[in-house]
Amino acid sequence: MPKTLLSDRQRHSHVVHEIAAPTQRLPKEFVHLHRTDAVLLTNWCTLGSGRYAVSARWPAGGIFGDSVQLLLAQTIRQSCLLIGHAELSVPLSHQTLMEWMDFQVSSDFYDPKNKPGNLFVLLTFRPNNPRSLRVELSILSEGRLVAESLLDFSWIAPGAYRRLRGVHAEVPWGEAVVPPPVAAHTVGRTHEREVVLAPTGVAGRWELRMDVSNPALYDHRVDHVPGLALIEAAYQAAHAFTGPGHAPVRVMSTFDSYVEFDAPCLIDTVLVPATDESTVRVEVTGTQNGERTFSVTMDCRR
Question: By its UniProt entry, which Pfam families does this protein fall under (predicted)?
């Protein structure tokens, strides 16, 4: 765990009491969401010198269901966006880009008996350049460290973003044909509507289902497949590949380019040598138009 965050835990224990009570209304615009019930954060405060604390509440059920993976990724995403906009003057009109994200979670955190109602997130922000930040993040449940993350994100002005996206800046929404899903239980999900993978007939390969009717992954209209949907695809592919009982304890994600709505994206999964005998390492790669778009490596408990 980063020393700065350990220090924050020891020196700023009073923060838990300061932000335990939720704000009257945490602006959902700060976390780029349209649905109020998708906002997991409840309050925040500054600790000084680039350090911040955020409180979060995981609801029972809701649009994210009981998926620890989705709730954890959303908590990390929302915490970074909140502090970026509320404290670091990142304009709401700008597009934010996640370049890579590495996070790990304690294996017992997947036990339903340990599912928390309230969490506290400690973050340290360091500038990479004027439009990019490195974030160190720790998540605490009842004072116990349950997850930590390291990630880079940047932002881009609207005009520059339109030029970058070109013909993909305006895309038809919800018009793509969504192929039938694989069986939900094979990818660790309960309902067909949660499944983001379609069969291809090739072992270890699936097609990404770009189902914009899934509110957990597509809260509002966007011009490309969100990174959260890609991480979810990697989770489901790893589950299908390894079988049940192999929850991921470390996830390393790299995003090379946008995944577009106008062409199939193939999801390939292979086993690679693990550095720890207690885990099995799965590498999941997304490919579109013959080019790699993202890669997610997961260390899953044996």
Answer: AfsA
Contact 68, 113 (CB under 8 A): no
Structure tokens that stand for 166 in this block: 């070109």
Place of tokens 């906002």: 39
Could you tell me if 133 and 125 are in contact, meaning their C-beta atoms sit under 8 angstroms apart?
A: yes
Cα(263)–Cα(72) distance, integer angstroms: 29
- What value does the mean pLDDT of the chain take? 88
Residue 178 has φ and ψ, to the nearest 5°, of -95, 115
Question: Does 3-161 carry CATH code 3.10.129.10?
Answer: yes
| Largest Cα–Cα separation, the chain | 55
Task: Using the structure block, give the residue that is written with the tokens 């660790």.
Answer: 188
Boundaries of every domain in the chain: 3-161, 171-301
Rounded-to-integer distance, Cα 199 and Cα 162, Å? 34
**Each residue of 83-92: pLDDT tens digit?**
999 999 999 9
